[in-house]
Inverse folding.
């Protein structure tokens, strides 16, 4: 096993670091590694779904072109996650001068302190190794961020302790951007940076260097700059200055999942559904997962919800987690070892839905909870049509039209709910269309039967309210009464 160099002298004799060997910049390093992944057929961003044909090839193009780039998209579109995934295109580790704040290359130091140290110790200069996960520096842009936070400032305390003048390079306290030297610097919500901070990024974007506090200290940093922004803020006047926008190499638009299947895959990956250590196991049927995802899709197209803010993918993730919690709670209360999520659990997840929708004026008048209930009903209707279109459910409808009523309490045990649902003629014969049969146990069968009734209600073929549960508003046909024979008419001559 080869020991990593710990001094500059050992580094020079290490493969790839000989004095005449070419030195790669960060962008060249990213370019070489992404080409290697493409050649090997490896996924560029494991765990990112729905962007395989759109966003990810554009990011690859930007990296291959050695561009700084910005991701434009609404909230909950995995922008930050993509930026953090860029570290996978960096080398596992690189050497730097031990103790250096800006992780200087030992063979090409930038800062005055490293140059002095190498001049003093030569080949004995200590070397440390910087791992790829530490080479990503991220800053959330807020109005209170200062130029000193990003670039740096003169430290009067350091100057006083060392007896140096304030203009001496050795008195500088470096900001986040210099500390990201030889790595990746990410700014989330770029338009929220004050104008003067945006101006401070000009030099590093174009000339590749920065100046600190107006002193002629030039640091030609080696860094990849990446940003995120909301499209509306990015194009609004006063939010981002045009010269900075012009200096960003590539502008890449993200989007929400294009299909319900993509959304289900993302939610399934992110949601905490497997409750390890729980007292009861919870099964989430596929049709319930689709209902949860359809809620987000319908919300994104609802005129009462602000499209400029968007409906984050966090909505179905949080909703599904709440659905599982509701089913888990019911199972524990009823001492059931296993439970199945029911449509009633989706309604119990309303708090996970209402807080993730920014409403327009009309929506505020209608109320977030009422809108959320309508979205659930619409989602059930779409999933119901997918699975049960063409099914013969007329016997079920007739059962209610003949005066039948059914109200299944949300907290009812599965066996009790199933016993009540079995009373409805023609209902249990159709649960197989939802990929459910007797092998799914009482909880799975009850959940499927209840979903069918909810679907009929969503299509207005039966009625439902809090007092009576499922019923029919159509009056029963009046019974035919036997009419007494009429007396014969008298005939007068």
């Amino acid at each position: 096993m080869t020991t990593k160099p710990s001094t500059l002298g050992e580094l020079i004799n290490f493969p790839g670091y000989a004095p005449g060997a070419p030195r790669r910049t960060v962008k060249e390093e990213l370019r070489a590694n992404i080409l290697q992944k493409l050649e090997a057929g490896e996924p560029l961003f494991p765990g990112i779904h729905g962007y395989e044909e759109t966003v990810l090839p554009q990011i690859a193009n930007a990296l291959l072109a050695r561009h700084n780039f910005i991701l434009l998209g609404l909230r909950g579109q995995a922008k930050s996650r993509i930026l953090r995934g860029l570290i996978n295109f960096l080398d596992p580790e690189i050497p730097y001068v031990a103790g250096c704040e800006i992780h200087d290359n030992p063979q090409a130091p930038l800062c005055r302190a490293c140059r002095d140290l190498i001049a003093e110790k030569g080949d004995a200069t200590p070397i440390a190794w910087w791992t790829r996960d530490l080479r990503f520096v991220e800053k959330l842009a807020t109005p209170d961020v200062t130029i000193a936070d990003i670039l740096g400032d003169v430290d009067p305390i350091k100057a006083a302790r060392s007896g140096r003048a304030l203009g001496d390079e050795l008195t500088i306290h470096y900001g986040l951007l210099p500390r990201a030297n030889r790595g990746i610097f990410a700014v989330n919500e770029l338009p929220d940076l004050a104008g003067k901070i945006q101006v401070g990024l000009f030099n590093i974007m174009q000339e590749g260097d920065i100046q600190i506090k107006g002193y002629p200290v030039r640091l030609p940093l080696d860094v990849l700059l990446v940003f995120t922004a909301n499209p509306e803020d990015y194009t609004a006047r006063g939010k981002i200055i045009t010269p900075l926008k012009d200096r960003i190499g590539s502008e890449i638009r993200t989007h929400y999942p294009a299909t319900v299947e993509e959304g289900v895959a993302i939610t399934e990956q992110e949601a905490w559904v497997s409750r390890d250590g729980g007292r009861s196991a919870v099964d989430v049927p596929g049709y319930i997962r689709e209902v949860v995802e359809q809620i987000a899709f319908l919300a994104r197209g609802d005129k009462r919800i602000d499209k400029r803010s968007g409906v984050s993918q966090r909505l179905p993730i949080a909703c599904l987690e709440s659905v599982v919690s509701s089913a888990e709670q019911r199972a524990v209360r009823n001492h059931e070892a296993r439970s199945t999520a029911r449509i009633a659990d989706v309604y119990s997840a309303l708090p996970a839905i209402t807080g993730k929708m920014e409403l327009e004026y009309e929506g505020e008048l209608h109320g977030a909870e009422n809108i959320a209930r309508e979205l659930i009903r619409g989602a059930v209707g779409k999933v119901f049509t997918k699975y049960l279109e063409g099914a013969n459910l007329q016997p079920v409808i007739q059962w209610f039209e003949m005066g039948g009523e059914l109200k299944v309490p949300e907290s009812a045990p599965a066996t009790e709910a199933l016993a009540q649902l079995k009373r409805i003629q023609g209902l249990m014969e159709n649960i197989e269309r939802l990929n459910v049969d007797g092998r799914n146990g009482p909880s799975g069968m009850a959940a499927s039967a209840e979903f069918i009734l909810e679907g009929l209600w969503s299509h207005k073929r039966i009625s439902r309210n809090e007092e009576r549960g499922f019923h029919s508003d159509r009056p029963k046909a009046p019974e035919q009464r036997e009419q007494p024979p009429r007396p014969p008419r008298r005939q007068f001559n």
Q: What stands out?
A: The domain at 8-253 is CATH 3.40.50.300 (Rossmann fold). The radius of gyration is 33 Å.
